[in-house]
Amino acid sequence: MVAFLLPLQLPAPPLHTRPLPHHRPPVAIAMASASTADSPNPIVLGCGAASVDYLATVASFPNPDDKIRSLALKVQGGGNTGNALTAAARLGLRPRIISKVSNDAQGRNILKELQDDGIDTSYMLVAEDGNSPFTYIIVDNQTKTRTCIHTPGYPPLLPEELTKENLSAALDGADMVYFDVRLHETALIVAEEASQRKIPILIDAEKKREGLDELLNFASYVVCSAKFPQAWTGASSTPVGLVSMLSRLPKIKFVIVTLGEKGCLMLERSTIDASEADKIDIEVLLESLEKKVDESSTTPNCITSMANLRISADEVGSISGRLLLGTAEVIPPDELIDTTGAGDAFIGAVLYGEMVAIANYFDSFEVYHMD
């Protein structure tokens, strides 16, 4: 990895820094059961943000008009798409990225670090003038949370800058397309072409953004933040919001909502119609799964309902499918750093799991089936 070379006298760790040593290196193990020498690793195309993060760790988040000192400062790669594709690359996929930077120190290093992680940057645009996107991130050392202040790159990526030839080449051989809903006008063009080619699409629905509703109509899979299902649907709870999302978006195969230290929740649509089956309320179903959680366990588990249930929510109707509850690993407080990029890394893992390891994914967990 190449250190960040900036005109400022700042610490210069590499972009998209590698995992801490106590985590098991994933690449050699990840692909062993998923591919052979005659079977190249799957290709994922991402369209969205790649930027620079300036992370200042502080003792606690400042009050208005405070003057405080940072405990540490790091400069590293960021952007939802840059982060997610880096995670996917380290798990063994072959990512490509559509984005835009400027021909400045930050932009050149963004390109270099992505390339060093095995990400194909051939379809990124580089502006001769302007500035590459960057984000100031304040990391609260007490709560391990972060607050982001983003400055978009300039000039922005315009849809007409992505030629038909480059779009076609970027999608050739792609097994999945991923959007973080930045660069939404360009993303819609990519989504339309990917849909015509019947390439599955995964959407990162972090929050309501311009162009999100249009992109969701193309989605095969959605990963969203804890607040999104209620915010987007107006539902009374997250589980009800998940039923509403699958009811409104018939192309979607599953929606995953990330829940931080509580893990994640996934509602998966069934290919078998269960409309004649007895209804089961999603709130009741979730409660039954939560009772199966082993509170003493520090390792992640997946607890799943039976398949082909008629899962209902009084406000929005019902869908045929199953509900899955994933718990998170319990990490000792002294090993916690912050939550920067956690959701992006999760999406990188979802991309990997869906494309090359879905059949083996649950084998790595202890799975409970509800009677």
Q: What is the topological layout?
A:
Blueprint: H1 27-30, E1 43-47, E2 51-58, E3 72-78, H2 80-91, E4 94-98, E5 100-102, H3 105-116, E6 125-127, E7 134-140, E8 146-151, H4 164-171, E9 176-179, H5 184-196, E10 201-205, H6 212-216, E11 221-224, H7 228-233, H8 238-248, E12 254-258, E13 264-269, E14 279-281, H9 282-290, E15 302-304, E16 309-313, E17 317-326, H10 342-361, E18 367-369
Parallel strand pairs: 1-4, 1-9, 2-7, 5-6, 9-10, 10-11, 11-12, 14-16, 15-18
Antiparallel strand pairs: 2-3, 7-8, 12-13, 13-17, 15-17, 16-17
Helix pairs in contact: 2-10
GO molecular function, one term: kinase activity
Protein name: Carbohydrate kinase PfkB domain-containing protein
Organism: Miscanthus lutarioriparius
Task: Describe what you observe in this structure.
- The protein is of the alpha/beta class and 371 residues long.
- It has one domain (41-369): Ribokinase (UDP-N-acetylmuramoyl-L-alanine:D-glutamate ligase, 3-Layer(aba) Sandwich), CATH 3.40.1190.20.
- Helices cover 27% and strands 25% of the residues.
- The protein has ten helices and 18 strands.
- Strands 1, 4, 9, 10, 11, 12, 13, 14, 15, 16, 17 and 18 form a twelve-stranded mixed β-sheet that branches. Strands 3-2-7-8 form a four-stranded mixed β-sheet. A two-stranded parallel sheet has the order 5-6.
- Helix 2 (80-91) packs parallel to helix 10 (342-361).
- The longest helix is centred in the last third of the chain and has 20 residues, at 342-361.
- It is globular.
- InterPro entries: Carboh/pur_kinase_PfkB_CS, Ketohexokinase-related, PfkB_dom, Ribo/fructo_kinase, Ribokinase-like.
- GO terms for molecular function: kinase activity.
- It comes from Miscanthus lutarioriparius.
